[in-house]
């Protein structure tokens, strides 16, 4: 295999003498590969690969002759990340040509250029590693990070990453900052066997206090040297970091560069390339406040020669636009081979429709063009004809797999259609014919891919050319083997059985070519679409479901009442697979209703509760999860009865259940239950039954390998608990003979633990602070503290601000740690240390004082007993962590100015939920803190949850999140409840199994307690009809925020407006008033995280029903999924207008007062729209005659944004959309703005039409932005949107959207606008182009059509 040169790499020139220390975390990547390349990126003098599962490290090299000199070494066993050290030194062929490789303190290899003896080598020798001194670049995977690097120098040094280091013996102990703060120099793990390096990360705030030399001191405070600080030198360091790739690939380098550049205020002294790199880093790490001021406007991209040549080709007259003309253009062009490959691939769609794609790709061969690999949906689909011509079966199949999932990427359906026809017709290619069986396999693969993509509402599988090709295949199926016919017919029916255009085309086939069953399917589909099915609709939909036809979910949801279940007491969904039944039940249970029946049907409720777990597909599930949950629930109930001196029923059944879970797959949790029951029975005086429990444990373990079960977390902790707390000495001796207690888990005996639930054996630690002891803490005790008491689980409250050792006083632990937000890491570490040394509990459960806990759900789930570290997993790859979260809450200079510089990637338990630490984890925390790595982590960390996870990882303890079902709500606005965010789910409700809800400040704990007893979930939710029901992050879930009694108006209005909004306070009043004036009867709004008062205003409007969604905008097909959710759930078959806050529909000229009025419902009832399903709207960009900054819209948008381009639309783009059924027009204004910048946009950009006025039906399909649609009859008469994007808020809006990067192509259009505005072009009016709205010829023509 030829290695691909990395697109990004770090500059690292092999020192003549020096070292490089790396950390390799195999949790994050089981097989990371580190490439040490030469300057030309053509050779790798050194390559190191780790193979975690095989416990091997491979050392080899690559040259133009190929791979060679492979050394294989066993990986040392280590509890945390590996430390890889490379020590460069002089070799036989010169300085820097030899290298020692160290791993975890072991020297694994010594390399140099000379051949080495090898028994199996040619002539008894193996080549060495020449050219080590030519190493110039390193390609690092995310699992590897640079810890330190040194040259030949010894002593103190300030690195480019702004670290103070000391290399060699007699190091300094600390560095004194200008403000007299002391930073300890900690040893760099992995360097001690090479040279010995100590290091401290220098904060950016050193520049705040008139920076001077940094003083180095010994442990006793005596001077030990100094290092100079200067802004010119800082500037030079920043330039090197940016130029050499460190800011791009090394997190610490990027964060230090951003922090120091801002603190030292040196942006004006940096080069444009450096500023660009810093701007990109600020965006990558979500640190908008650290973005250089000069980069607020994006740089204008360079001209694209590929786009320019494509534009020249497209501009040719129809008769001259052919392959011969293209060949001449290519001959005259000065494109690189790669650019030519991109151009020809981009012309595949044109060639498949208008010419011969095989001849097109023959031009690629002729010009030696490099065609992009088929590794994206676009490249894979566009290149299908080329791969067909090459008769490359493997690459054809590879290309088909790369089209799934499409994820809104463009698929070139004409190329797909062309390839299907070529396979069906057995066309001869340049290399002859494909075999019959090859054609059969490829056609089946094509149809399976289409079947998968049709289920994605954003794909183009309803393209007319593709439909025609598929039906051509059906008509010519006699050319294929007989045994493939049923498969082809089935796959086509599954894909298109609920697509109207498909059946319209089937009608055109001769009757004898139509598969026998298809007329019946066509009749049933049309009965659904026309309403003729009546009460039989549910039975017809069930038939489509049984045939696995795509689209039945949307039809069920939209066409059947309640949503999708006409009779909840008899749901009639038993024909569906269990997960689909559970999904339908959950949709039904969560659906917003004004009046919920009480209670819901039990069977349907049970299905919905199971659906909660199915919907949380991101949550891992244990193999024996259901059995573990049943056993835990039974055991908790039995323990509760024993504590109350009540008789316990079915103890024998419980014992037998526990015996079945004495397996490694269940973590031997059955043994923990048997020991807990034995202890509780002993306390109750029933030693006979207690001994029976222990005998069952002994018998169950007898057939197991002792080495297997004796190390399990559940059994070890349960055994230690039994030895400490069982009151019967004979039983303790008996249990010790079965499984001796682990002395490392012993702790002090306390009454608190002895009286606690023996199965949970958990101390709940409520993290709070002194000011909240009199308000939040009592509310917690009232909301769920009594539930803890009933479960037998004690709770203490932890606060900071204590003096001396931590002490427990009346249920409150006073810790010697800060009592503010910034001191939270120290507080958590202090409570962990106190719990380890002062209590004997097997585990503690840390929970914040703004959370609601369901003790039954948490402790009855035995998953938590089986692991030392349990919580909601957060997996942070590079750039995903919010490193400035603490700054707004901090009080110290360190907290207000220093970024969190802890390492990413990282996996840790979410601190906003509750997480559990077993005694193994408590001991590991203490050990990790005592190491140099642990102290260094504490010095750069602010997030307590991440610090705990990072420290535990150092000791090899990893997080488990099995069955951790919970919800996170974040404070939204005054007077409104917290809204779902990050972990979108429900408040724990009866039967749900949800363990925790984070409520944030303002959360109503008593409301959560009431919800726990309620079988109906809160908040009420809906989902889009075309995506599965899912909970968690970015699941396109919509939560009802406004009162549910508004739903009847939203559902019943003759005309309603559907809108997606975020921070639209500037336009909102104008928007609502405009549409009320047009006769709109209700508004349905999906709010996407507004924080400017928009949400509060919407909720206050009696005709507005508001939903909230926390999904990023660019993961919703730019809002289309939310719009479809509102339409499908509330507006099926009724006129609805989908409008953004700056889009004002109109169809007549403004009156003298520049008002636009009308009766839109009356217009839609008129003859021009009779029988229509949707209306085409032209988007007309309006703008003020003066500067945008003066268009504040105090008098209204139509009054101040009065002008429009004389010809507002362009008709020069021939594309017909993703389904080939719509003409395209684009915005003249936006094109001329880009042209004014010298950056003409592609002709297909800025589409200025929307099919946004429709009577929604589930068989309709809409593109992103609703620019194109399929599945409905379009009215003959079009209307228009007045688009008021350009106003005094536009600059701020563009900046915000560029920072968010949620709009199309990472908000590229907004970035170009910023570049335009940065040039002082605040006026869009152009005298030779702009006219008042009433004078626009286009508008006059539109009005004349009335």
From TrEMBL:
Q: Which Pfam families match?
A: Glyco_tranf_2_4
> What is the designated name of this protein?
Glycosyltransferase family 2 protein
